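Hi R.,

Here's the chain you asked about this morning:
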Amino acid sequence: MAPSPVPAPGRPARPPVGHASGTALPRAARPVELPPVHGALVCVALPALAVCPEHGQLTGEGAEGVYAAGRRLLSRCVLRVAGREPVALQGRMAGTDRAVFLGVLRVPGEAGPDPGLTVERTRSADGTERITLRSAAARPLRLPVEIALGTDLADLGTVATGRPGAELTASVHGTGLRWTGSDGRSATVTADPAPMDSLAAAGVLRWEAEVAAGAAFTIGLRVRGEAAGRPTGSPGGGTGRPGGHLLAEVRAEADDPRPGELLRASVEDLRALLQRTPEHPADVYLAAGVPWRCGPVTAEALWAARMALPLGTRLATTTLRALGRTQLTGEGAESGRIPGPLRDAGPHLPPRCTGIEATLGFPVVLAEARRWGLPPADLEELLPVAERCLDWLRRAARADGLVPDPGSAGARRAETQAHAHRAALLGADLLDACGRPGGDVLRDTARTMRRRFRHELWIDDRTGGRPALARTADGRTWARPGGWAAHLLDTGLLGGGRYAQGLLDGVETERVARLLGTPDLDSGWGLRGLAVKDPDHNPFGHRTGAVRTHETAVAVAGLAAAGHEEEAASLLRGLLDAAEAFDHRLPEMYAGAQRTAGGRPVPHPAACRPAAVAAAGAVHALLALAGVRPDVPGRSVSVHPLSSAPLGAIRLSGLVVAGEPFAVRVSRLGLGMVEEAAEGLQLGV
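And here is the predicted structure, written out as tokens:
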């Protein structure tokens, strides 16, 4: 069972959209106030996770606790030694799935100010915790130790509302305690060594710790969950984690150490976010983000799998398979579309349908995975789903050449047209390569789309023109410059290391590149979602000014591919600086406030961190430095590095092309050299 999706700021969770054509879509409901987690240490190994405050004590406040499969198994874990809580000194992540906390206590009876007792705690996402009392006293100590435990067994969605319910009453169970809810679910904590005393009514376990001079005393805790007497794949009981073979061990060695740190942390986060579809355990995909969006496979999982293609094609295959199972079938107008929830799109437009994103993204990811070396058997299995997606695209664009939002009053969004145009061109290339009909019709659709985009969604002015965000059915045009324009530069990979023609011509591409490089949009930490001069700008608005990591990464790669290296390098440096401030675990978004000397990026209070598109986006942006363009069916691979080498020399290894290791080096002069590749690939620079 995967954790239920809950609303993130301004992005209310909705059931999958399956409205028939002509049905109006509802406005987004008012979002709930999510408990802030930006200051928490979040240990992740889905379906298990632990949300910990920096001091290490779990007090049951907000989202604190140990979770498994969307259920909070432990909300309170408060340690006291000789009746006192340790003085917290440090809390830090020791890995994606565990956090370490350090505290101290003065030894009872000692007159001096120096602490004589160190308290070390290591808490893991799998529900285990190790508590060590280490003495620096010159005499043996006998210390009463107690741990107060509790849980409400609330599901994550309920925790998100701020009304999780009261703690349950515990009962003594073996060497620990047990809590049972009204639905038959239960949680058990066991301790080693066994406590000397257990007070079930108060949820307290007690020990008398005898610590020799210079010695230590250790307590181990393990929490486990059950549903109606059956283990649930919960902490301590086996999490059923997907294998690490899905993502390669990529490394970066550079003059600047930050790319290596960011790449390592991002791949670790991606692995921690992997989860299985319960009905089909082989369908592994990335959760959109922790802690709030760990539900079924989403469009974000698809985009993340696309950006992670340099780490291997297996994740793309399993993600596509999981999404393909949800595709609408039959003979209706919606046949071929992949359902998805609605997401808020800002103050002036109705919610957008992420199912349309997934439908348009499916053939793109499949086509690009083929270029990276997708096995023929996987391609054959997934191709019919892509064909149905492309059939839906042709029907959707038939009316006026553009793809509308669902419903009779559906807006034509520029971002959606970029996704649709890319799908049409890469889909046509895919169908031709597989000997399937329809490629020419899709190319005609793409040509019509470019013409209609220029007429409907490009605004000519004295500055050279700019793209519009959207045009509504009543003819109004929303000209709101923002990070969404980065998607207009993302064209997709074809054979021979070529990029597909984009919606924009050369002049328009240059105009968008300059727009993305202006201080209005480049905050110094990344790309703002809305220009700072816009009257609706809000640095914390998820669509009205916050920096969205995914859009910044797309902009870096798109600008680099289009030859606008100065703008790409500026955004990449800002992203790296932000990542360093966030300990190399980038959140899905953060405040779009202007960077100042000595300042730091400001976290969004309830953004997911880690998030799939943020971690994969970091990989995508860093690989733009080398510009690896594979064409495995054509038995070739080329590199197109940034000639300015904005981060100095860098070597990327552990990548995967044609199922084999691939390594590339870029010199300080911006010259690229392939150092390792599959046998038989023709190499080009």
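One quick note: The first strand starts at residue 41 and ends at 45.

Cheers,
M.
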